[in-house]
Every structure is written in structure tokens, then in C-alpha cells.
Amino acid sequence: MTATVTAEAARSLAEPAGRGPAAAVTETLAVAGRRLRHLRRAPGRFLGITLNPLLTMLVLGFLLEKSLVIPGSGDYREYLFAGAVVQGALAGVGPTAIAVASDVRGGVIDRFRSMPVSRGSVLFGHTLADFVVGLGGLVVVTGFGLLLGWRPHAGPAAVLAGFGLIAVFLYVMLWVGVLLGLTSRSLETISSVTPLVVTVLPFLSSAFLAPANLPSWLRTFAEWNPVSAVAQACRELWGNPVAEGSGFPAEHPVLVLALTLGTVFVLAAATALRRYRTVGT
């Protein structure tokens, strides 16, 4: 199935017929540049991406630290940091969905489809631009985490690998945002739903709490939650405290991460590229 989706994405980028990959790349960069210029005129969107994880680190890392059970005997602030950066990656879903939905409502998507522009370049351009913004948010959250006491206890390669996992998770979530923007063109609905995703999904995982401390009926969901897999894998790479667990997700977080993120990316990208051809018609 992955090969089928990859082939479909390649065909989408190569359309219209007769245009080579270089033209598709140029068009993708042009769309990304347009999106970045819009973001420059609306810096509040960048603030929205970074505000949630910063507030989480402040509230949980300082105000409620003594009320939370720290896994093992480690520093809770170091445990918390991985959850905060994952939450920051999730925060990109909303702005991407709103941008795509606004383009659909404003007729921008229709104009792009009437031009000799490869179909996939519009969606890839959106995700590329928001990926750059998300990486900027990740830098801000990391700097704030260092100020609050987070420290990695591993070599440079392992630390970079952890941030690489966050970057992959960020990009996959942007495609979820693209799909949401194409399927739900109501900006009010998107604005209402996405904050719940950013807030609730991390709390139903090991991002901030150990799954063992959750009610039994929530524990299984928390252990298989992709957010848990990302946070657990990053903590292991960074040498930070990890949530104790004996299940398959806790023992093989990287494998669970690859399976879940791969599935989400394939489904979201394939559905979004297919939806793009008919949206607004």
C-alpha cells in the first residue's frame, strides 16, 4: 500500500503531463514561500504553536510538580520536556488546517487547479512552510526547556536522533491538518476541535503522566497512543527518565512509532491528495 501511495504522490507532483520534477519542486517552493509570507504578516500563529508547550512546562514543571508522581527517581522536569515538545508538534495541526480551509473557501485552491501547476505541489507547499515554522517553534520550546532545567544525558548523535523523531512526528501531523482543512471547511469547527487535540491527546498518553498511574480503562489507549511512543523514544535517546511499563509499546516504542506514524502518514497523504482533486466542486 505504501508503494501505491508513493506512486500516487509522485504522479500528483508530476502533473500536468509533460512537466518534470524540477517544475514540481519550483512550484512547491513557490507555494511554501506564499504561505511563509502570510505567516510573517500574522505572527500570532507562531505564538499559538509555542504557547501551549511553554505553559505546560510552567504549570506542570513548577506549580504542580510536587503533586505528580515521578517515574522512578528521575527529575520530573526532564521527564516532562519530551511531552512538551510533542505537544508543540501537535500544535501545528490547527494552523495548517485553517490555512488550507481558508484557501478552499477563498477560491485559491480553484485558481491553483485552473493553472498549469502540479496538483501535489499546493499541499506539499503548505506542509513545507508549516514544517519550517514548526521547527522554529521547536527551537523556542527547547531553549525554554533548557532554562527550566531540562538536560540531555546522552551523546550528540542520540540527542539529534531524538529531535529527528520529533521532526518526523511534526511533519506527519501537518498532513493530518491538511486533510482536516480539506474535509472540514468550517473555520469555527477547526478552531474548536484542534485545541482539544493539542490538550487532551498528550494527557491520554505518557507525555506528562506515567500510564501506570492512569485508570485501567485508559491505560491501554495511553500505551498505544503515538504520542506515548514519540515521548518514550525521545526520553530513551536523551537519557531522561522513562515511564515504566511491561507491555509491547513500552518495550518497543520505536517500532510502535514507525507503524503508527507510517500508517497515519500514508492514509492522511493519500486521502488529502485524492480529496484535493474534487474539493470545492
UniProtKB/TrEMBL annotation:
<feature type="transmembrane region" description="Helical">
    <location>
        <begin position="254"/>
        <end position="273"/>
    </location>
</feature>
<dbReference type="Pfam" id="PF01061">
    <property type="entry name" value="ABC2_membrane"/>
</dbReference>
<keyword id="KW-0046">Antibiotic resistance</keyword>
<protein>
    <recommendedName>
        <fullName>Transport permease protein</fullName>
    </recommendedName>
</protein>
<keyword id="KW-0472">Membrane</keyword>
<dbReference type="InterPro" id="IPR000412">
    <property type="entry name" value="ABC_2_transport"/>
</dbReference>
<feature type="transmembrane region" description="Helical">
    <location>
        <begin position="122"/>
        <end position="150"/>
    </location>
</feature>
<dbReference type="InterPro" id="IPR051784">
    <property type="entry name" value="Nod_factor_ABC_transporter"/>
</dbReference>
<keyword id="KW-0812">Transmembrane</keyword>
<feature type="transmembrane region" description="Helical">
    <location>
        <begin position="79"/>
        <end position="101"/>
    </location>
</feature>
<keyword id="KW-1003">Cell membrane</keyword>
<dbReference type="InterPro" id="IPR047817">
    <property type="entry name" value="ABC2_TM_bact-type"/>
</dbReference>
<feature type="transmembrane region" description="Helical">
    <location>
        <begin position="156"/>
        <end position="181"/>
    </location>
</feature>
<feature type="domain" description="ABC transmembrane type-2">
    <location>
        <begin position="44"/>
        <end position="276"/>
    </location>
</feature>
<keyword id="KW-1133">Transmembrane helix</keyword>
<feature type="transmembrane region" description="Helical">
    <location>
        <begin position="193"/>
        <end position="214"/>
    </location>
</feature>
<comment type="similarity">
    <text>Belongs to the ABC-2 integral membrane protein family.</text>
</comment>
<keyword id="KW-0813">Transport</keyword>
<dbReference type="InterPro" id="IPR013525">
    <property type="entry name" value="ABC2_TM"/>
</dbReference>
<feature type="transmembrane region" description="Helical">
    <location>
        <begin position="44"/>
        <end position="64"/>
    </location>
</feature>
